[in-house]
Design goal:
Elements (H helix, E strand, L loop, with lengths): L4 H4 L24 E7 L7 E2 L2 H8 L13 E5 L9 E7 L11 E11 L1 E10 L8 E4 L1 E5 L13 E3 L2 E4 L13 E6 L30 E2 L3 E9 L8 E7 L2 E9 L9 E8 L13 E13 L20 E3 L6 H7 L5 E4 L2 E3 L2 E3 L4 E4 L4 E3 L8 E3 L5 E3 L2 E3 L5 E3 L7 E3 L2 E3 L6 E3 L7 E3 L2 E3 L6 E3 L4 E4 L2 E3 L6 E12 L2 E3 L6 E11 L2 E3 L6 E6 L2 E3 L2 E3 L6 E7 L2 E3 L2 E3 L6 E4 L5 E3 L2 E3 L6 E4 L5 E3 L2 E3 L6 E3 L4 E6 L2 E3 L6 E3 L2 E4 L3 E3 L5
Parallel strand pairs: 18-19, 19-22, 20-23, 21-24, 22-25, 23-26, 24-27, 25-28, 26-29, 27-30, 28-31, 29-32, 30-33, 31-34, 32-35, 33-36, 34-36, 35-37, 36-38, 37-39, 38-40, 38-41, 39-42, 40-43, 41-44, 42-45, 43-46, 44-47, 45-48, 46-49, 47-50, 48-51, 49-52, 50-53, 51-54, 52-55, 53-56, 54-57
Antiparallel strand pairs: 1-17, 2-3, 3-4, 4-17, 5-16, 6-13, 6-17, 7-10, 8-9, 8-16, 10-11, 11-12, 13-14, 14-15
Length: 646
C-alpha cells in the first residue's frame, strides 16, 4: 500500500478539521472537508524531476522556474517523509539568490475559485542548512497572485507565500544562521506598499508560550495554512498557520480584496533565497518537499445534513469496524438507503447487492483478500462509494449489468490485475468524480453503458488505456487527466460525447482516439503522446473547438474516413507528423486554426479526400508544405508562411 495520510498527518492540528483523519486520496474528513488536490510524489522514481512530471503532477503550469533548469529532483526512501515513497528536492546553488538562480516556482491552478481553503505540506531543510537571511516557501494565492514590485490593488489578486526568515535588521553582510524563524509573506490590499515596491505583511511565527517558532536543519515540518477570504471591502479575512499542529499565526482582520472578482484559486509553489545580494546562499543548499494536500469545506460529508433518519433500516450510519467487523456483515444487516462508514482497512472481496452508500473515513481501504476475484462488485442500483482506497483484485470495481445510477466519488483504485473500474452494459447513469486509477494491468476505466459522467478523475500508469468507452451513448468528460498509460489516454466509441478540458499526457500511443457521431471536443490538450494527439476515425457531425495537440510522436490531428465534422480554432504545434492529416474524408472543415512547427506538412489532404474546406488558418514553419491538397477540396484564404516545402 502507498504512504497514507493517516500515518503522515499524525501531528495535524485538531482545529484544522481533523485533516489527519483523511487518507491520501479519500477526500472527506470527519469534519466535512473535501480534498481538491493531493500529491505525495510516490509514483515517481528517484532522478530528475522533468517538465513532463511537473505537467502530470500540477496540471501543466503556465510557467515554471527551476524545473526546466534542472534545480528540482525526485528523492526516495530515507530522504522522503516517513522513510518511504518519494519527495521533491529543490536546490539553491552557492553564491546566488532570487528566482532565476535558486529554488523553483510554479502555480497549480484549481480551475475554480473558493472562499476558503486549507493547504498542508511538509518541508525539510538539508543537514547543515545555512538559512542566511531568509527564503520563500509555498502558499495559497488568488487572481493574478501579485509578487515582487506588483501592487495588490484589491482588484487584481493576492498572494499568501510564507518565508523562513532570520531577524537581522540593521546587520549587514551574510551572518551564518543554522536556525531560522518564520514569517507570513502575504501580499494583499492593506499589507502596505512602499517606494521600493515591497508590499507584504511580515509577522513572525510565535508559539502559544510567546517563544518564537524555530526551524532547524534535517527535520521534517508540517506547515498548514488556512485562508478565508474577506467580504469585499471589509476587514474580516483570515490567515491561520500551524507548524506541526501548533497555531503560530492567527490573523482575523485581513482585507484581501475590494470586489469579488477573485478569491482562492491556486497553490503558488515558490521557494528561493530572496532579497538582495546579502541574502545569497553561502554554499550549495537543498530543501525537500512532500505531502501536498489542499482541502475546501464540504457542508455535509455524511449525505444526511439534517441529522434525520435515513430511508434504510438504521437511524444513522453503520460503522465498520465497530458495529460490524466486515463490510459483508454490515451489508447483510443493512437495508436499501443505509449508510456504512468505513473507518479503517478491511481485507475482503465485497459484493454490494443493496442500494447503500459506503463512505470512507480515516484510513479507509478495501484490500482484496483474493486477487483472482473482483475487489468490489456492485449488483444493485443507486449505490454510492466515496472516499475509499480500493487495492488489488482481478478488477478493482466491477459494476455488474443493469446496476443503474451508481456514483463513485473520490476513490483511489490501484494495482488491479485487469481493469481498474469496469462498468457493464445497462448500467446507465454511471458517475465517477475526483478519483484516481493507476497501475492496473489493463484499462484504468472501461465503460459499456450509456448516460455517463466522468469529472475530475486521474487515470495513469495503466497497461491499457486511461479511459475506454465502448458503444456508449451520451457521455460527459469534464477535466479528466490521463497520463503515462501504455496505450491510449482516451479511447472512445459511441455518440454524443461532450469532452471539455481533458488532458492526455505521455501515453504510448494516441492521446484521444475518438469514433462515432455528434461528439463535442472543446479545450482539450494532447501533449507528448507517442502517436497522434487526436485521432478521429469513422466520425460524423463532430465538433472540435479550441483543442491543442503539442509535441506528439505522430500527427497532431488525424481524421480518417469521416464526414461532416468541423475543426475550429485548433492548435497543432511541434508534432512529429503532420499538423492536421485527413484521409478519405468528405465535407469537413478546418478553420481558424494555428498549425506551427510540425515535422511534416501543416495540413495534408490525401487523394481520396474530397469537398473539404481549409480556410482562415495560420500555417507556419512546418518542415514540409504548409497545405498539401492531393484531393479535390476548397482551399480558402489562409496565412501560409515559412514552411520549408512551399
Amino acid at each position: 500500500m502507498p504512504k497514507s495520510y493517516i500515518t503522515k498527518f499524525t501531528n495535524a492540528p485538531i482545529v484544522l478539521f481533523l485533516i489527519g483523519a483523511v487518507s491520501i486520496f479519500g477526500p472527506r474528513t470527519a469534519n466535512c472537508q473535501t480534498v481538491i488536490f493531493a500529491e505525495n510524489f510516490d509514483t515517481l522514481q528517484a532522478g530528475p524531476y522533468t517538465d513532463a512530471d511537473l505537467d502530470a503532477d500540477f496540471g501543466e503550469p503556465r510557467f515554471n522556474n527551476g524545473v526546466t533548469e534542472g534545480r528540482v529532483r525526485v528523492v526516495s526512501g530515507s530522504q522522503a517523509f516517513g522513510g518511504t515513497g518519494s519527495a521533491l528536492a529543490t536546490s539553491y546553488p552557492a553564491g546566488v539568490h532570487g528566482t532565476r538562480e535558486t529554488g523553483a516556482q510554479w502555480p497549480y491552478e484549481f480551475g475554480e475559485s473558493y472562499e476558503e481553503a486549507t493547504l498542508s505540506y511538509r518541508v525539510r531543510f538539508a543537514p547543515g542548512f545555512d538559512f542566511v537571511r531568509g527564503g520563500k516557501l509555498p502558499g495559497l494565492a488568488g487572481g493574478t497572485a501579485p509578487t515582487g514590485s506588483t501592487q495588490a490593488t484589491g482588484f487584481n489578486g493576492w498572494a499568501g507565500r510564507l518565508m523562513w526568515r532570520t531577524n537581522f535588521n540593521g546587520v549587514s553582510g551574510q551572518p551564518q544562521q543554522l536556525t531560522s524563524g518564520g514569517i507570513t509573506y502575504a501580499k494583499h490590499t492593506d499589507s502596505g506598499f512602499s517606494g521600493d515596491g515591497r508590499q507584504e505583511d511580515r509577522n513572525f511565527f510565535f508559539n502559544p508560550d510567546g517563544s518564537q517558532t524555530e526551524f532547524v536543519s534535517n527535520q521534517w515540518y508540517q506547515i498548514t495554512q488556512r485562508i478565508v477570504m474577506n467580504t469585499p471591502g471589509e476587514f474580516n479575512g483570515i490567515q491561520q498557520i500551524w507548524i506541526d499542529g501548533v497555531l503560530v499565526i492567527n490573523e482575523q482582520d485581513i482585507r484581501y480584496r475590494l470586489d469579488d472578482s477573485f478569491a482562492i484559486d491556486q497553490l503558488y509553489f515558490s521557494t528561493f533565497y530572496g532579497g538582495n545580494g546579502d541574502w545569497r546562499t553561502s554554499k550549495d543548499e537543498e530543501a525537500f518537499f512532500d505531502d501536498f494536500v489542499i482541502t475546501i469545506p464540504d457542508g455535509n460529508s455524511d449525505g444526511n445534513p439534517d441529522g434525520e433518519p435515513t430511508d434504510g433500516g438504521f437511524d444513522g450510519p453503520v460503522s465498520v469496524p465497530g458495529q460490524f467487523e466486515t463490510l459483508a456483515a454490515a451489508l447483510a444487516a443493512c437495508s436499501d438507503g443505509d449508510v456504512i462508514e468505513l473507518t479503517g482497512q478491511v481485507t475482503e472481496n465485497v459484493t454490494i447487492n443493496k442500494s447503500v452508500t459506503i463512505e470512507g473515513l480515516a484510513d479507509a481501504a478495501i484490500v482484496a483478500a483474493n486477487d483472482d476475484v473482483d475487489t468490489v462488485t456492485i449488483e444493485a442500483s443507486d449505490v454510492v462509494l466515496a472516499g475509499l482506497e480500493i487495492e488489488g483484485g482481478r478488477r478493482g470495481i466491477h459494476v455488474d449489468t443493469d446496476s443503474q445510477n451508481v456514483v463513485l466519488e473520490s476513490l483511489f483504485v490501484h494495482e488491479a490485475g485487469n481493469v481498474g473500474v469496469l462498468v457493464e452494459s445497462g448500467c446507465n447513469g454511471f458517475t465517477m468524480k475526483n478519483s484516481e486509477i493507476r497501475r492496473c494491468d489493463n484499462d484504468g476505466v472501461r465503460i459499456l453503458s450509456d448516460q455517463v459522467v466522468l469529472e475530475g478523475n486521474n487515470s495513469h500508469r495503466n497497461h491499457g488505456s486511461g479511459y475506454r468507452l465502448m458503444d456508449t451513448h451520451t457521455a460527459t468528460f469534464d477535466s479528466n487527466r490521463a497520463y503515462l498509460n501504455n496505450i491510449h489516454g482516451f479511447r472512445v466509441a459511441g455518440s454524443y460525447f461532450d469532452f471539455t478540458g481533458n488532458v492526455s499526457l505521455n501515453s504510448r500511443l494516441r492521446g484521444f482516439a475518438v469514433e462515432g457521431h455528434g461528439h463535442m471536443l472543446v479545450n482539450n490538450l494532447a501533449r507528448s503522446n507517442g502517436s497522434h494527439g487526436f485521432s478521429i476515425d469513422d466520425a460524423t457531425d463532430c465538433m472540435l473547438f479550441d483543442d491543442r495537440a503539442r509535441f506528439n510522436g505522430g500527427h497532431g490531428y488525424r481524421v480518417r474516413t469521416s464526414t461532416g465534422n468541423q475543426l475550429d480554432d485548433l492548435n497543432s504545434t511541434g508534432n512529429d507528423g503532420h499538423g492536421i492529416l485527413m484521409l478519405t474524408c468528405a465535407d469537413n472543415s478546418i478553420v481558424n486554426s494555428f498549425v506551427f512547427e510540425n515535422e511534416r506538412s501543416g495540413v495534408l489532404l490525401n487523394n481520396s479526400t474530397m469537398d473539404n474546406t481549409v480556410s482562415d488558418n495560420v500555417i507556419r514553419s512546418n518542415l514540409e508544405s504548409g497545405i498539401a491538397d492531393f484531393g479535390h477540396n476548397t482551399i480558402g484564404s489562409n496565412i501560409v508562411r515559412d514552411n520549408l516545402g512551399d
